[in-house]
Hints:
Layout (H helix, E strand, L loop, with lengths): L1 E8 L1 H4 L5 H9 L6 E12 L5 E10 L22 E5 L3 H12 L3 E5 L5 H12 L35 H10 L5 H4 L10 H14 L3 E3 L4 E7 L2 E7 L3 E4 L3 E3 L6 H9 L5 E2 L2 E10 H9 L16 E4 L2 E9 L3 E4 L9 E4 L8 E10 L14 H16 L6 E5 H6 L15 E3 L8 H17 L9 E6 L6 E2 L15 E3 L1 H4 L5 H15 L5
Parallel strand pairs: 4-5, 4-10, 5-6, 10-22, 18-19
Antiparallel strand pairs: 1-3, 2-3, 7-8, 8-9, 11-21, 12-17, 12-20, 13-14, 14-17, 15-16, 18-20
Bound molecules: flavin-adenine dinucleotide.
Amino acid sequence: xxxxxxxxxxxxxxxxxxxxKHAVSARLGIPEGRIxxxxxxxxxxxxxxxxxxxxxxxxFIGEHLPLSEKISIPSYPDVSRKIPVVxxxxxxxxxxxxxxxxxxxxxxxxxxxxxxxxxxKYDISLLNRGEKLNTESNYCFGExxxxxxxxxxxxxxxxxxxxxxxxxxxxxxHGATEDILIDAHPxxxxxxxxxIIASIRRSILDAGGEVHFNKRVSGLLVKNGKMKGxxxxxxxxxxxxxxxxxxxxxxxxxxxxxxxxGLQLEAKPFALGIRIEHPQQLIDSIQYHMxxxxxxxxxxxxxxxxQVEGRGVFSFCMCPGGIIVPSSTGSNExxxxxxxxxKRNSPYANSGIAVAVEPADWQVYNDEGPFAALxxxxxxxxxxxxxxxxxxxxxxxxMTDFVKGKPSxxxxxxxxxxxxxxxxxxxxxxxxxxxxxxxxFVDFDAKMKGYLSNEAVLVGVESRTxxxxxxxxxxxxxxHPQVSxxxxxxxxxxxxxxxxSSAIDGVRCALAVAGKPQ
Length: 518
Ligand SMILES: Cc1cc2nc3c(=O)[nH]c(=O)nc-3n(C[C@H](O)[C@H](O)[C@H](O)COP(=O)(O)OP(=O)(O)OC[C@H]3O[C@@H](n4cnc5c(N)ncnc54)[C@H](O)[C@@H]3O)c2cc1C
């Protein structure tokens, strides 16, 4: 017999499956020996008053968990001799497109400009030390895409259709812990993601697909409005009647290439701001109402949103116990982002705080057509780079100083390893962003007393929140209106934001290629 029940547990009990049996036995009034298995279904924290966890579980009473319900890598069919479909980019969109194509009997052939996940690590460590940016291998480019060396938060605000549980199950089958299936706000951590990505690659290769690294797609082969293949590194050609273009929001050369080949693009609203870092202990004390969170509670997170003068200002990609990282992809620009490992155990809490950017804001660049919003983004990134001395050091200012409009004489300790340069961020950011950030911080402090603090530091700039360009596609066929067989996909094409929604879009594009109704 199986029964679903909800348990109310202390933080130390919630993460210790050994102790669940005792709680279930007491709750149901049955001996522990009759409980053969407990499957967790949902775990969420309630920190409104005294902190505790709610754990929903399925209890197997006198019955074992059937083997068929254990999560393992599915047996993918052999597609080595099937019709090849080119996928450009091995981010979440490209990888999930590949697995879906295999399930439907197509052979994915992935071209990825960056290195495999292991080789990429070396370039990322040079970047973290502030020594060198490799423009083809960094936080955005390389196997696993932008999501690999990240926090690996797996929740999505997207309300688009998509099978989120299927994506999470695939990640578990490839090595993620089952915790991601039950936590209200699941995350994997940067220490675990590379292994999962490498395991997905093995599944693709074992099924007869292909994955090519250090191969940059530099052109499309199009004849009479039909996709014919791709050009690699301006010299080699690879034929294919279907191409899934999943190159992410930082592949600016891809947008330029499409424009030069006469394909329509559109400027698109996005969001831009700064990354803020507080001592984790301060965020813990605000969120948990206690000075020390103790050994069992996770580093506290927050989610803040407000409206200032008709615009949304919101926290974005919050990384409790994380670090701020340099995520530029080109020289002469400074971009930051955040990440954390699975234990979320750094002494800092960081988050992007972004202001919605709308067409009125890029009017001055309107003669650049589809690149107007991108030009605004590039201009601000270049200003951040110049302001901080044209290295990987980042411009920074204490939070209270920013709100008061005065420069910071000193800066607090910060996790951003390449180093900070004290800068008035209002000189880096356009006024419509700086002034709204300033007002939003006051509002956030009213929501989280103590949030507005001079122990917090703002680091510039958080500019790659989503793509400033959209590659149009037909809503039903998901193909570009001018080229049949070209499937713009994922965050770079403007149809996703974050790991999960990008993976879902990869699945959708692959189903469209396979002609499967969605
Ligand atoms: C540091 C950091 C932390 C993040 N943390 C989170 C998080 O915790 N949770 C979350 O949901 N999201 C997070 N994100 C955002 C998330 O990573 C992206 O939304 C997601 O990866 C987008 O997926 P994608 O497949 O569409 O594109 P991408 O992941 O950007 O992948 C695109 C791939 O295409 C390749 N490519 C580009 N151009 C070419 C070309 N011409 N030829 C061949 N290959 C090419 C790139 O090298 C890249 O590997 C983070 C991003 C960063 C940078």
